[in-house]
Amino acid sequence: MRALIIVDVQNDFLPGGALAVPEGDKVIPVINELQEKFDFIVATQDWHPADHSSFASQHPGKSPGDIVVVEGEDQILWPDHCVQGSFGAEFHQDLKQSNWRKVFQKGQNKLVDSYSGFHDNARKADTGLADYLLAQEVSEVYIVGLATDYCVKFTVLDALKEGFDTYVIEDASKAVNINPNDFTLALKDMSKSGAEIIRSRDISPE
């Protein structure tokens, strides 16, 4: 069976949000149309405590984009975003949610960031997503959302490590692009690791 995984299409990652992905809102109609082609859909949600260590506000004298060491791991600092219970952490109102099976929250441990929908960055804990998909006999995953060069990329890489046949839907994802070519580099990294890069038009309804 195949599953669609929608990664972090939340207000803070959309135009006007605290950590807006350029043109991030453009993926919403593409994802909504894709949902009509899948019987099994899950989503991930960034869900940070207000004092998360990835927030530049928690490190005096530091700014977003700086890198610090937290618990022995390099951590890029971000603006405060997707704080638990906040409007910024909510899924965008135009994103269809009625057919989702489950939402997997990540980034709840304030001492470690969590880009992937499967594991935190230090691989100390997992969200339960892999076990859930396997229990439902899912073998193929199609991954979309925000952002291509961070949470989508790491979700894809972990899906491959978990043994799923993994597809990235290129036109249903946008990148932060701290560097101008980060979107392209992320696609190359995912492809080299074994993911197939496809477009929404390539997918047939179930």
TrEMBL record:
DNA-binding keyword on record: no
Name of the protein in its database record: Nicotinamidase
Taxonomic lineage: Bacteria, Pseudomonadati, Bacteroidota, Cytophagia, Cytophagales
Residue ranges of domain Isochorismatase-like in the record: 3-201
InterPro entries on file: Isochorismatase-like_dom, Isochorismatase-like_sf, Isochorismatase_Nicotinamidase
GO MF annotation list: metal ion binding; nicotinamidase activity
EC number: 3.5.1.19
Coiled-coil regions, chain positions: none
